[in-house]
Amino acid sequence: MQNRLRELREQNNLTQEDLAVIVGVSRQTIISLEKGKYNPSISLAYNLARAFNLTIEEVFIFNEKGED
Amino acid sequence: MLSKQNTAAFWLTIAILVGLGLWQLIYVSPGYGTGLIGGAVGVSIARFIKQRKIKEMQAKGLNPYDERVYYIAGKASYAAMVSSILLAALVVLIGSTFGPAVMVNPYDLLGYCIAIVVLLYVIFYYHYNRIM
């Protein structure tokens, strides 16, 4: 699943650690999410979207092909 | 994972290991006793370092045990289980077919099996943590 986390984080002048604190995860998780190596749970995706005042669909782009 | 019950259980286990180690060291088998005490001290030091890192993360407001950690732990557990079963099956197959019959101490065998499973888990955990 692709996402716009890095772009949105930079737009909001947040560091990876800032975002991690806001959504209650580790910085490593934010790094993995930004690299597209880890797909978040629904609740984490919701919290991330809410951190930017957006909907989940505006942050995460679901690809029907190639999802594990 | 930093609960008081976990901490108490950990130190109780360490105390039992050190007690058994001292008993072995003095009365039964000095080598085995030294191993038990050394293992207990080593695990205590490793835990101390880990707890310090966790407290640093928590002080910053970060969550050291988030969903990704549980996801990786689950994947590592599954991979360790499957690979240890395959390894055991391979050893049984080859040993039963070609190897001589050997007598083993069941306690030693179980100890080696536990060590292999734990080692595989640690290897897979670090592997998945690196690639994810």
- Helical proportion of chain B? over 70%
Q: Oligomeric form of this entry?
A: heterodimer
Unreliable runs of chain B, pLDDT <50, ≥5 residues?
none
Largest interface by Cβ-Cβ < 8 Å: A-B, 15 and 14 residues
Using only CA atoms, what is the Rg of chain A? 11 Å
Radius of gyration from the alpha-carbon trace of chain B, in angstroms: 19 Å
Instruction: Please write the string of helix (H) and strand (E) elements of chain B.
Output: HHHH
Percentage beta strand of chain A: 5-15%
Structure commentary:
The complex is a heterodimer of chains A (68) and B (132). Chain A has 68 residues and is mostly helical. Chain A contains five helices and two strands; from the N terminus they run βαααααβ. Chain A has a two-stranded antiparallel ribbon. The termini of chain A are close together. The mean pLDDT of chain A is 91. Chain B has 132 residues and is mainly alpha-helical. In chain B, 86% of the residues lie in helices and 0% in strands. Chain B has helices at residues 4-28, 30-59, 67-98, 106-131. In chain B, α1 packs antiparallel against α2 and α3 packs across α4 (106-131). Chain B is flat. Classes of the chains: A mainly alpha (68), B mainly alpha (132).
